[in-house]
């Protein structure tokens, strides 16, 4: 029996989508279901998971309030600082640099990703440690300066590590900017600052929101930077999860924190997408 063209297209689409769907289901959906089940259980006497149905783990989230506070404070601040640094860089690359040199400079933005984040973070440990900047400050009479194992050190590591991820979406958004709009604004007598806030910034907001959402979501689960630059004094949720799963072996409580983190990430993502859609719709209306 011959298949209709529509049926054939559906079968081809299903065959193409099936491998990726199966991969996501096995390695993403099933583990998350297991974590949700664990979150309603109890810690076994020898550690691990013991079957039960209780909300006690979620009621105990307050005991890790410091980790939630550091994450929910430093992650948005880190994203905002990344934005402040990334936007001028992306604007310069997309608008000011000639096409002949643009590819080279954009490549330099990506170069840090060629080196492991672990190695780069260890470099900052040396720079901020006793033999780094504090040692240099002693020569000018400034003593007892502690930079490592502080929230400032963690924030600096966050900005350094995630800055390229903020630059690239903004750069892509600005690169698509119609230069004729800027020229028309200048011809009509608008000042550069008015042109920026009236044309450039609104048209680049989708890229800004993409960069902010991407960096914030990754920072909410960050573990390495707080562990190395925070020195055990600046905990993120990721550090709490490692402690609960690998050291305390309190899998139900760690699962409850992980589920809560996923809920926070989903909320952040939905809010960012909603804002981006509104901005994109307003931009289309303005251009019409």
Automatic annotation (TrEMBL):
**UniProt-listed PROSITE patterns:** ABC_TM1 (PS50928)
**Organism the protein comes from:** Rhizobium altiplani
Annotated transmembrane regions: 12-40, 73-94, 103-127, 153-174, 195-220, 251-273
Q: Which Pfam families match?
A: BPD_transp_1
The entry assigns this protein to a family as follows: Belongs to the binding-protein-dependent transport system permease family. CysTW subfamily.
Q: Which InterPro entries match?
A: MetI-like (IPR000515), MetI-like_sf (IPR035906)
From which domain of life does this come?
A: Bacteria
For this UniProt entry, what is the primary localization, expressed as one broad class? Answer: membrane
* Gene3D superfamilies the UniProt entry points to: MetI-like
- Domain ABC transmembrane type-1, which positions? 68-272
Q: Which GO terms describe its biological process?
A: transmembrane transport
The protein's topology relative to the membrane is:
Multi-pass membrane protein
Q: Which PANTHER family match?
A: INNER MEMBRANE ABC TRANSPORTER PERMEASE PROTEIN YDCU-RELATED (PTHR42929:SF1), INNER MEMBRANE ABC TRANSPORTER PERMEASE PROTEIN YDCU-RELATED-RELATED (PTHR42929)
Write out the entry's keywords from A to Z: Cell membrane, Membrane, Transmembrane, Transmembrane helix, Transport
Q: State what protein this is by name.
A: ABC transporter permease
Cellular localization per UniProt: Cell membrane
Question: What CDD domains does the record tag this protein with?
Answer: TM_PBP2 (cd06261)
GO terms for cellular component: plasma membrane
């Amino acid at each position: 029996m011959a298949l209709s063209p529509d049926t054939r297209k559906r079968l081809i689409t299903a065959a193409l989508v099936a491998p990726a769907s199966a991969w996501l289901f096995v390695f993403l959906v099933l583990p998350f279901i297991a974590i949700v089940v664990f979150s309603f259980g109890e810690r076994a006497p020898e550690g691990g998971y013991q079957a039960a149905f209780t909300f006690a783990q979620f009621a105990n989230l307050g005991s890790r309030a410091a980790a939630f506070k550091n994450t929910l404070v430093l992650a948005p601040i880190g994203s905002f600082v990344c934005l402040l640094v990334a936007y001028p860089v992306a604007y310069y690359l997309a608008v000011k640099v000639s096409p002949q040199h643009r590819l080279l400079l954009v490549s330099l933005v990506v170069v840090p990703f060629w080196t492991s984040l672990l190695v780069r973070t260890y470099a900052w440990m040396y720079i901020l440690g006793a033999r780094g900047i504090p040692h240099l400050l002693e020569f000018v009479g400034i003593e007892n300066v502690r930079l490592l194992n502080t929230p400032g050190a963690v924030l600096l590591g966050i900005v350094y590590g995630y800055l390229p991820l903020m630059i690239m979406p903004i750069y892509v958004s600005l690169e698509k900017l119609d230069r004729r709009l800027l020229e028309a604004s200048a011809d009509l007598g608008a000042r550069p600052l008015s042109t920026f806030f009236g044309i450039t910034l609104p048209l680049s907001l989708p890229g800004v929101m993409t960069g902010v959402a991407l960096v914030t979501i990754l920072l909410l689960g960050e573990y390495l930077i707080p562990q190395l630059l925070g020195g055990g004094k600046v905990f993120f949720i990721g550090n709490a999860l490692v402690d609960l799963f690998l050291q305390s072996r309190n899998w139900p409580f760690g699962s409850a924190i992980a589920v809560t983190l996923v809920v926070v990430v989903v909320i952040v993502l939905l809010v960012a997408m909603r804002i981006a859609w509104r901005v994109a719709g307003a931009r289309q209306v303005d251009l019409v």
